[in-house]
Amino acid sequence: MRVALYPGTFDPITIGHIDIIRRASALVDKLVIGVAINRDKGPLFSLEERVAMIEAECAELSAQTGTEIVAHPFENLLIDCARDVGAQIIVRGLRAVADFEYEYQMVGMNRALDSSIETVFLMAEARHQAIASKLVKEICRLGGDVSKFVTPLVDEALQGKQGR
């Protein structure tokens, strides 16, 4: 069974994330969405809210592709999380050259920790390259329309966080 781990904070999950999930699910039998518990980032959504959004957004995709897609919170090293879930592959989405520079360093460190776990990069679709959760939250906070960047479920959750 081919198992991959796609890690991130997903605060919130965007259509860019969903595109990477859709494409990664075509490559494996099971895709674990690693939801990072990163207190330093001060997430807008709680861990439980982020996991619930991922599960809701991925349920139909899982049914369509036949790939098991599960959300898995983690707070340990990424490589340890990959081992915990039995992943042979770590999936990373790339939007721009700046992403690659950071990810390249991470791959080197992860390979030094466990060379049996491979990292696969998936380039974001051109129409999704500018989407970043941080920017989506900022646009929403300032009253902008984020419906082009997130699903209706996530848009509603963002609006709720802003008291709208």
UniProtKB/TrEMBL annotation:
The record marks 17 as: Transition state stabilizer. The keyword Signal does not apply. One of its GO terms (molecular function) is ATP binding. ATP binds at residues 9-10, 17, 93-95, 103, 128-134. It holds the Pfam family CTP_transf_like. It is found in: Cytoplasm. Residues 5-138 form the Cytidyltransferase-like domain. Pathway: Cofactor biosynthesis; coenzyme A biosynthesis; CoA from (R)-pantothenate: step 4/5. PANTHER family: PHOSPHOPANTETHEINE ADENYLYLTRANSFERASE. This is Phosphopantetheine adenylyltransferase. It comes from Parasedimentitalea huanghaiensis. The lineage of its organism: Bacteria, Pseudomonadati, Pseudomonadota, Alphaproteobacteria, Rhodobacterales.
